Amino acid sequence: MQTDTIVLGAGIVGISVALHLQKAGRSVLLVDKRGPGQETSYGNAGLIQREGVYPYGFPHDFGALIRYAMNNTIDAHYHWNAIPKLAPFLWTYWMHSRASQHEAIAHKYATLIEHCVSEHDTLAQEAGATNLLRRKGWMKVFRTAAQQDQRLAEAARWNRDFGLNYRALDVATLRSEEPHLDQSLIGGLHWTDPVTVVDPLGLSKAYVARFEELGGKLALGDAGTLVQDAAGWSVTLTDGTKAQAKDAVVALGPWADVVTTKLGYHLPLAVKRGYHMHYKAQGNAVLNHPVLDTERGYFLAPMLQGIRLTTGAEFADRDAPKTPVQLARAEPIARTLFPLGERVDAEPWLGRRPCTPDMMPIIGPAPKHKNLWFSIGHAHHGLTLAAVTGRMIAEMVTGQKVFVDPTPFSAARFG
């Protein structure tokens, strides 16, 4: 099978890359071991985070570090046996999270984030999927004045520096807009620019349908079979067919090392794992916005499947068995925040977020191989940045002027 470009990985990032390349006139084969959107892209919080100019850093305040060391929080959990392997990554991650460096990173990262909503709007319109997008933003809710004051001051600073829009919610306004939340909450912060997705898997499928409508092809295959040959790149599909193309794009998320390590790249990629569970709402209770319980570190999002409860980061080996202890810690607290009913899912879902220590994705050409491209390391913002990244890669592959400067996101920054 001959095609112009092979895209490895059918998560939302790989799907968006493939769709943009197909729109640009390239014939594209999208290859994955499973169906599109079945892994990390399925289990996110459904946020297109226009406010997310500061990627999620490693806390530097002493209190948080002490809490994490005790390993009994909702927002972070780790496997002791994984720490020796993760230690170099965590140290570099912590260093990049220092205030001055984090701020410098944010100004680079903002060049991607500022386009996240508009680029998804374009793809969703073309794919007939705008019904899956909600323009209500999302909320942080507060239990203590100290946390409220800190986050509102932060929001004011981000508004000044990046033009991000928000509302400070007093008790009366919060209760009016979310009447079924815990009445002891003292207020909230409403980020109004973000868009939420009520069915992330549905959005992935809609983008894939548009890709196929334009002539794109899907196939099952093992990315580990990718090799460079005289024609460019080839990969062996599950049915034994060999697919060949001039260009190949690695968009494998947490499994990128299947290709990158084999080709001699030692990128500092790690994985943050996370869990979710869906619930029915009790009685006539309604959750109108996605909500972060700021002090407790879990998130509730209204989805078509039910109310999705998501947890923070679990630091563990990528392929270790599920240990949904954060979900078990979060559920009883979440039930006091909002009247959750019975569980909808048979078991907790586990996903894996692909992370770099400087919190920025790797977008662009592979430094040592011609016509090989990387689109990996999007961490918590795979859904947020998928459409932006897809357009950037397509413009690079086809030799167009790239609408966002890709220099800060080059793999070459890691040497």
Describe this structure in words.
With 415 residues, the protein is α+β, with helices and mostly antiparallel strands. The protein has a domain at 2-41 and 201-263 and 358-414: FAD/NAD(P)-binding domain (3-Layer(bba) Sandwich), CATH 3.50.50.60. It is built from 11 helices and 22 strands. It has helices at residues 12-23, 62-70, 83-96, 99-113, 116-127, 145-162, 171-177, 200-213, 257-260, 325-337, 382-397; strands at residues 2-8, 28-32, 47-48, 76-78, 133-134, 138-142, 166-169, 187-191, 195-197, 217-220, 227-229, 232-236, 242-250, 270-281, 291-293, 298-303, 306-310, 313-315, 340-343, 349-355, 362-365, 372-376. Strands 4, 6, 7, 8, 14, 15, 16, 17, 18, 19 and 20 form an 11-stranded mixed β-sheet that branches. Strands 1, 2, 10, 11, 12, 13, 21 and 22 form an 8-stranded mixed β-sheet that branches. A 3-stranded antiparallel β-sheet has the order 3-9-5. Strand 16 (298-303) and strand 17 form a beta hairpin. Helix 1 packs parallel to helix 11 (382-397) and helix 5 crosses helix 8 (200-213). The mean pLDDT is 96.
Describe the structure concisely for a colleague:
It comes from Bosea vaviloviae. The chain is α+β, with helices and mostly antiparallel strands and 415 residues long. It contains eleven helices and 22 strands.
Layout: helices, strands, pairs:
Layout: E1 2-8, H1 12-23, E2 28-32, E3 47-48, H2 62-70, E4 76-78, H3 83-96, H4 99-113, H5 116-127, E5 133-134, E6 138-142, H6 145-162, E7 166-169, H7 171-177, E8 187-191, E9 195-197, H8 200-213, E10 217-220, E11 227-229, E12 232-236, E13 242-250, H9 257-260, E14 270-281, E15 291-293, E16 298-303, E17 306-310, E18 313-315, H10 325-337, E19 340-343, E20 349-355, E21 362-365, E22 372-376, H11 382-397
Parallel strand pairs: 1-2, 1-13, 2-10, 4-18, 6-15, 13-22
Antiparallel strand pairs: 3-9, 5-9, 6-8, 7-8, 11-12, 12-13, 14-17, 14-18, 14-19, 14-20, 15-16, 16-17, 21-22
Helix pairs in contact: 1-8, 1-11, 5-8, 5-11
InterPro entries: FAD-dep_OxRdtase (IPR006076), FAD/NAD-bd_sf (IPR036188)
Pfam families: DAO (PF01266)
Organism: Bosea vaviloviae
